[in-house]
Design brief:
By secondary structure, this protein is an alpha/beta fold. It is built from nine helices and eleven strands. Strands 2-3-1-4-11-5 form a six-stranded mixed beta sheet, with helices on both faces. 34% of the residues are buried. It binds adenosine-5'-triphosphate and 1-O-pyrophosphono-5-O-phosphono-alpha-D-ribofuranose. Its EC number is 2.4.2.17. It is found in: Cytoplasm.
């Protein structure tokens, strides 16, 4: 019997880079996946028994961690923020490269040293990573959770500082902010549900090999 498999793919900015990688691994979504008018959330593929779900980045990790999807793609930022034990992230896909950084207004940064902080208040989508990062050097982090547009927080007086993803630096620049500390380098990973991997070891081992080859191709 063929194992049925569900692959979770984030619908945001990773998607564009992930599709060529999926194609190199041998997975092509059905045409409705590319139809902007379609409201479907689960899609067939050219691989019998393999379907794709298109979900928000954080939710891709949740579906896989709970075994509702067998495997998928997410950023290492999301993996680190959740810290799900049931998630196994065996392949660095070398896409979605960026970094998670602390940033603050340019004027504040002119006379500031992050090493001197004992307390910091930040707006972020990553309260767990942020708290862990600062706690490791004895700094208490007060995190205000936002889901996007973190860069607005200093200007509007919500927090002086932010912890957010940076790649080109354009978003920080356009909002008068500068990076003062890098917390982590980020790239997208293939994630696998440990329970699924145990149940479907043969077919999933084969997929891991295909993804490793697709990364190197
Ligand atoms: N500027 C960036 N450059 C490269 N990769 C990024 C960048 N921003 C985010 N990423 C990666 O893409 C992932 C998804 O980010 P994206 O911005 O598409 O999601 P989002 O829109 O914030 O999430 P959601 O769909 O939940 O609203 C992040 O978890 C990160 O790994
Ligand atoms: O350094 P840059 O190249 O400017 O990229 C950084 C921006 O990219 C991400 O946001 P995204 O565009 O994904 O939107 P979001 O606010 O929905 O997270 C991140 O949250 C920054 O805002």
């Amino acid at each position: 019997m063929t194992d049925t498999l569900i692959f979770a793919i984030p619908k945001g900015r990773i998607l564009k880079e992930a599709l060529p990688l999926l194609a190199r691994a041998g997975i092509e979504p059905d045409a409705d996946f590319h139809d902007p008018a379609s409201r479907a959330l689960q899609f067939g593929t050219n691989v019998p028994g393999l379907s794709l779900i298109r979900v928000r980045a954080f939710d891709a990790a949740t579906f896989v961690a709970h075994g509702a999807a067998d495997f998928g793609i997410v950023g290492s930022d999301v993996i680190d923020e959740f810290g799900y034990e049931a998630l196994y992230a065996p392949v660095d896909l070398k896409i979605g490269g960026c970094r998670l950084s602390v940033a603050e207004p340019k004027a504040l940064a002119e006379d500031d040293d992050p090493r001197s902080w004992s307390h910091v208040r930040v707006a972020t989508k990553y309260p767990n990573i942020t708290s862990r990062h600062f706690a490791a050097r004895g700094v208490q982090a007060e995190c205000v959770k936002l889901n996007g547009a973190m860069e607005l927080a200093p200007r509007l007086g919500l927090t002086n500082r932010i912890v957010d993803l940076v790649s080109s630096g354009q978003t920080l620049k356009e909002n008068g902010l500068v990076e003062v500390e890098v917390i982590a380098d980020v790239s997208s990973r293939l994630i696998v549900s440990r329970p699924s991997f145990k149940r479907k070891a043969e077919v999933m081992t084969d997929w891991l090999a295909r993804f490793r080859e697709a990364v190197d191709a």
